[in-house]
Write a structure and sequence with these properties.
Shape: globular
Largest sheet: none
Helix content: over 70%
Number of helices: 13
Structural class: mainly alpha
Oligomer: single chain
Order of helices and strands: HHHHHHHHHHHHH
């Protein structure tokens, strides 16, 4: 879902595209292109990803979770393949590279997408959206172990503790997690954990390949689609009828939330940098909560928004790069 998880990881993946763009720039003035400013695209990306949890919920009302995920990947891949055709880009080459991309596809697409779809069978889309906001917390915790150059500061460690305190608040830990489905919530949190695990893997194995972000992501989504195409028939049958509204939700989830969103995201990273672009993470749970309550009529306990604020505050502190106090 959210690719902007750990700033240094995304920044590393941006190096190839940025250096290529610098070499190809001409000193001669170019005609200004008419396009949306980065703030408008930032807002659109926040809305797209914020509404994704609502679309997952609607999709699972008509189709099995694996079917929702497969449809999402098919539509998302189609958008990226079309973008590659327009820009005349080819898929990456090399069996070893594709093997590593297959692992990235599983960790960043097939696994978290499926887990979120299954989780929303039993938990509200609002809770799933808030669980997604824990990705920076997981990323911070993992970076302490996996990335030796990413040393912790007291501020960042405090943010990690504050963030997980927020998670406990959202879940109502002092009430014994009353009224929450433990399995569904665990799936959503595991999905959020999968993103930083995937990005750490990408940073270690796929950074600096010389391929563009578009071709790498297109190949990654293609591999994730193949993975779900193999798994889905093993656990689900062909739908007896095709519900229109859930099908439209899946199409929007894939074309907008997976395909178009990735294109917007990488454009933002190239234009304003990963630190600014990753701030979209903090708007997603707000939008997901508002959409779930207003459109789906989901109930909201007072601990949910309070815990979400604490989670976001903690996640923001984990991204502070200055020296600890």
């Amino acid at each position: 879902m959210c690719y902007e998880v750990v700033s240094p990881i995304v920044e590393t993946m941006s190096t190839v595209t940025a250096s290529t763009r610098t070499r190809s720039q001409s000193p001669a003035p170019t005609r200004p292109r008419t396009r949306l400013g980065w703030r408008a695209r930032f807002g659109i990306l926040s809305l797209i990803w914020g509404f994704s949890f609502l679309l997952i919920k609607v999709g699972t009302e008509g189709y099995a979770p694996f079917q929702v995920t497969l449809g999402r990947l098919v539509f998302g891949t189609a958008v990226l393949v079309a973008a590659m055709a327009v820009k005349r880009e080819r898929l990456p080459r090399g069996a070893r590279l594709w093997g590593r991309m297959a692992v990235a596809a599983f960790l960043l697409n097939a696994l978290p997408f499926s887990l979120f779809a299954y989780s929303e069978l039993t938990i509200p889309s609002t809770l799933a959206g808030i669980c997604n906001a824990t990705s920076p917390l997981w990323g911070m915790a993992l970076s302490l172990v996996a990335l030796s150059e990413d040393r912790p500061t007291r501020v960042r460690v405090a943010g990690l503790g504050l963030g997980f305190l927020g998670v406990l608040t959202v879940l109502g830990a002092w009430q014994g997690f009353h009224g929450l489905d433990a399995t569904g919530t665990a799936m959503a949190l595991l999905a959020s954990l999968s993103y930083p695990v995937g990005w750490i893997y990408v940073r270690r194995t796929l950074a600096g390949t010389g391929n563009s972000h578009l071709s790498m992501t297109g190949g990654q989504l293609l591999l994730a689609t193949v993975q779900l195409a193999v798994v889905t028939p093993m656990f689900t049958g062909v739908p007896e009828h095709f519900a229109v509204v859930p099908l439209l939700a899946v199409a929007a989830l894939g074309a907008l939330g997976t395909g178009l969103a990735v294109l917007i995201q990488y454009g933002l990273v190239a234009e304003v940098g990963p630190t600014t672009a990753q701030m979209v993470t903090y708007f997603i749970p707000v939008i997901a909560t508002a959409a779930g309550v207003a459109i789906l009529g989901e109930s909201l306990r007072w601990t949910t928004p309070l815990g979400a604020v604490i989670v976001l505050a903690g996640a923001a502190l984990t991204q502070v790069r200055g020296k600890g106090a």
